[in-house]
Amino acid sequence: MRRIACLALAALATTACGDNVPTQEEIDDAKARVERLAASTHQVRGALEVLGLMPVYTCGEPRRSFLNHAVEGLSSTVACATARVQAVDDVADAVVVTFPASGCDVHGLRLTGRAVLEYRGGEDLMEMHADLREMAVDGQMLQAKVGYGTCSDETRLFADVEGQVPGREGHSFHINSRVGKREGFPFIGGTTLLFDGPGELTGPNGTDRVTLTSLLYEVGNYLPKEGTALVETADGHRLNLAFQPVLWRVGKVEVTVDDKDPVTMPVVR
Signal peptide position in this chain (predicted)? Predict the structure, then answer.
């Protein structure tokens, strides 16, 4: 009977099949939560990718001069988007990026609507904040605040994003991400993105609390290549998610439910 039970579990996931195996119900529940989290972090990555359309401000260069050249570069590299510089006040300018109604494919994401990127300060200290409330990622509207600060002692990048979980009616998310820097990786606009931070996933059965740690995304991929996520569920369970390169290649993640044996399961988009 034990062997039959393990074979049944293997239809969905691979496990050590010892005496501490999660039940089928626990596996099904964990899989649904993992897929909601993956869909949500994909939206956060989409918001951050908008920042990568523009180069990071070059400290010491006049703000308007930098933006004019940056907009020219954006128009040549992302032909489906249009961009223009707009004065805000004496110490700030904005770049308005507009995507066509049919969508603009950027790094595996379909972007529509418009984004307003405001640059305030310059030369010694620059703060950039992007308003993405009129933009959609893969058809999903976002309530997003993303941006960075630079030209001071510390360069930082952030994303505070909330919205509906794509394809999961009645479920929403809110993730407050801090983007990390790793030796050899560009700040933004490269082929990799590394971020951490807390978040929440809310549905009919309550709110799960999420902690993301060093999630490393490769441009154009749905799942993070490596990193971990802790999901503390509304009903008192803990799910530990371990993203690993060897599993990433086949669209899977290792999940540990409470203190039971880890299970490897596919993540369906």
Answer: 1-18
